[in-house]
Amino acid sequence: MKRVLWILQAGFLYLFTLVAAVFPERSLYGFGRLIGLLMFRIMGARRRVAIDNIRQALPYMKQSPEWTCPFETPEEIARETFINLGRSFLEACRLYHGRDNRLIDIIEIRGMEHYDAARAKGKGLIFLTGHCGNWELVALTYARLFHTSLSVVARRQNNPYLNTMVEKMRLRHENTIIYKDNALRNMISVIRRDGTVGLLVDQAVFPEEGALISFLGRSAWASKAPVLLARKTGVPILPAFIHREGEKHVITIHPQFSFEGDTCEEGIANDVKRYSGYIERFIIAHPTDWYWVHRRWKRAGEPLG
Q1: Is 160 domain-assigned?
Q2: Which is nearest to 249 in space by CA: 62, 24, 29?
Q3: How many CB atoms lie within 10 A of CB 182?
């Protein structure tokens, strides 16, 4: 029975990607908005998680000088977040079928000099990012924007047919996929070949995989993987994020990030906190461009003092 449901789910999604691919480009922005509003209405559990996450983070975010969001309530921010997710989903569907070159053509890259400086070192590099803006768009357009392939660290979908669809889309755009089984070994292999690895490191991890830090005013488990990988390989790490500005996307690349090098648990935790600060500042500056619907603070207990 589960197999039948998996096939139906993947088949329905594929049909939707076909509809999205032939939808008139001039109506795409508005159609994506409608998809997002529909998601906001029918995905009740995810909507409640997003609103609760925003409600608890909002007092902390509003204290920051980087806070310029025009939306005042958690409900407004969550609603706009779903609208952005709807638009991003529609864009990914069209890219699945090789459409929407205009979308790629108008992507703006800020901080390209930081990328060039890191590549010049000849050690490979890591793009450190999160579930920000249309993060799939960065991966799908990477080869065209940066003239080299990207190895993306990803989790296998529970639905194997859906996983095949997603995998096909990513591989079509000259990327490779590193699944979380034996991920560290495979990442090191890519880096030693002067390759580029993309890491999304803004979700909760198990305590044995992370460090407990303060994130948006609450305690959260954050991954130690970037710290351990950088220390083992000496690879340059570039924080990079994508956000939406009207109908175009902007990729911002920050200067190379250097870890302190203290190998004790406290030193590792400090480095995890420092790289997480980039993600935190992005969320404060662009709160409707972050994936609030996941349980970022699970297993972490009360806020750190």
Answers
A1: yes
A2: 29
A3: 10
Cα dihedral 76, 82, 86, 89 sign: positive
- The single-letter code of the amino acid at 41 is R
Identify the three-state secondary structure at position 99. coil
Q: Which tens digits make up the pLDDT trace of 159-185?
A: 888 888 888 777 777 788 888 777 888
Question: Token pair of 173, please?
Answer: 């755009």
* 296, part of any domain: no
Strand order in the sheet with 176-179: 108-110, 248-253, 237-245, 125-129, 196-200, 151-154, 176-179
Rounded distance between C-alpha atoms, residue 22 and residue 217, angstroms: 44
The answer to whether the beta carbons of residues 20 and 94 sit under 8 Å apart is: yes
Distance of CA 125 to the CA centre of its chain: 17
Inside any domain, residue 157: yes
Q: Which domain holds residue 72?
A: 2-289
DSSP state of 147: S
DSSP letter (8 states) at residue 290: B
pLDDT digits (tens, 9 = 90+) for 97-152: 877 677 888 899 999 999 999 999 888 899 999 999 999 888 888 888 888 888 98
Residues in the chain: 305
